[in-house]
Specification:
By secondary structure, this protein is mainly β. It is built from three helices and 26 strands. Strands 1, 9, 10, 11, 12, 13, 14, 15 and 16 form a nine-stranded mixed sheet that branches. A seven-stranded antiparallel sheet has the order 6-5-2-3-4-8-7, covered by helices on one side. Strands 17-26-20-23 form a four-stranded antiparallel sheet, with no helix packed on it.
């Protein structure tokens, strides 16, 4: 028997989170908003006669959803290539085959099925790993773009973050021909979720409605919406008749699932190591002034593990130069110190893959600012080239 506990041209415009409709209750998404984060990463999933929701995060070919949508009635997994994906669907009728693509494979947590067999299909412990990474080996699932994610969804969702939202398709709340049945919906809420079992989280007073299984839960990180997990139960009523949602939160230990899927499509190469070189160089270093340039880093997963800086700065006295690197969050680390004017100094500063300490664990993506300051007058030089290599964990 199918599990019954669960009923469940891109425009890069970011918008401050607004509350549309009633908090804790799903409302249809305006078609224009499907071109914006995070709705631009949301889509309808169809599998074995069932429908649910999914989202494209980490990689444009990767679709995150609920494992139970890939799980057949006979306690087996559906064959690869049986999951259909309809990106940004927002119509009142069910899409046709020409409107979507078949995803070629998926990776899931094997403990999900084991837990269902062990605990039954109404026990929260069965849904700690109800998450799956579908992928398309040949086609982009989101026009070449992918949404951001958070390193530890469980921590983020259970601590004080004001703006949270679930997107997806609660088709089960509508009659067959209702014009909103297959419209994309958003459910906004501000409450903190509570741990029910492991990475399975719950919250009363919020509901999305049946049919929205796999709907991504997003958190506002100050500049964008970031993926934190998937909806597991969208409409469950407690004894006090209050509505309820359940979410399988993303955990660092679950990254192996996602990385395995990305390895299948060749997408994991640049997730953990990236080298970025400066543009618009050479640049003169003003006498007793500073040369400033930025590195733009994107697409890395996890927190900073190591940073190495390479730099070439021809100068009459390299002891005049102070080199600093500032992270996207504003933390600044000095790589060199100036010597006094009275001391002799050889010319030309060269750094070759110099280890930069002090940024461990910080988020890697964003603008890193390199500053080369000339501390004394009467000697000049230039910033000829520079690059940083960031490795995450």
């Amino acid at each position: 028997m199918k599990i019954s506990f669960l009923t469940g041209v891109f425009i890069s415009i970011l918008f401050t989170p607004l509350v549309f409709g009633e908090l804790g209750y799903p409302t249809p998404v305006d078609p224009i908003d499907t071109e914006r984060s995070p709705f631009a990463y949301t889509g309808l999933i169809a599998s074995d006669g069932s429908t649910g929701s999914g989202s494209v995060v980490i990689d444009p070919k990767l679709v995150m959803g609920c494992a139970h949508l890939n799980y057949a009635d006979d306690n087996t997994w559906l064959p690869n290539g049986s999951i259909q994906w309809f990106w940004k669907w927002n119509e009142g009728s069910f899409p046709g085959d020409a409107d979507g693509i078949f995803l070629t494979g998926y990776y899931y947590f094997s403990s999900y099925r084991d837990n269902v067999i062990r605990y039954g299909d109404s026990n929260p412990r069965a849904y700690q790993w109800d998450i799956v990474a579908n992928y398309s080996a040949t086609q982009s699932a989101a026009g070449g773009y992918a949404g951001e994610w958070v390193e530890d969804g469980k921590t983020v969702l259970t601590t004080k973050i004001r703006n949270k939202m679930i997107s997806g398709y609660p088709s089960g709340r509508y009659l067959v021909r209702h014009p909103d049945k297959y419209r994309m919906h958003a459910t906004w809420f501000n409450k903190n979720m509570v741990v029910r079992s492991g990475s399975y989280l719950g919250l009363s007073g919020v509901e999305t409605g049946p049919g929205n299984s796999g709907g991504p839960i997003w958190v506002w990180n100050g500049s964008n919406w970031a993926f934190a997990g998937v909806l597991v139960s969208g409409s469950h009523f407690l004894r006090d008749l209050r509505s309820y949602i359940g979410v399988c939160s993303l955990k660092p230990v679950g990254w192996s699932l996602i990385i395995d899927a990305l390895d299948q499509i060749g997408g994991a190469v640049n997730l953990f190591t990236k080298t970025v070189s400066l543009a618009n160089v050479p640049l003169a270093i003003p006498d007793k002034g500073s040369a400033v340039r930025t590195f733009t880093v994107s697409g890395l997963v996890g927190g900073v593990k190591t940073i190495n800086l390479s730099l070439v700065a021809p100068h009459q006295r390299r002891g005049d130069l102070i080199v600093t690197l500032r992270s996207p969050t504003g933390k600044t680390v000095a790589l060199t110190t100036a010597v006094t004017v009275a001391k002799s100094s050889p010319p030309n500063l060269t750094l070759s893959s110099k280890v930069v300490s002090g940024f461990s664990g910080l988020l890697p993506n964003g603008l890193w600012t390199l500053t080369v300051k000339d501390s004394y007058r009467n000697n000049t030089g230039s910033l000829q080239s520079a690059s940083i290599q960031i490795t995450t964990r």
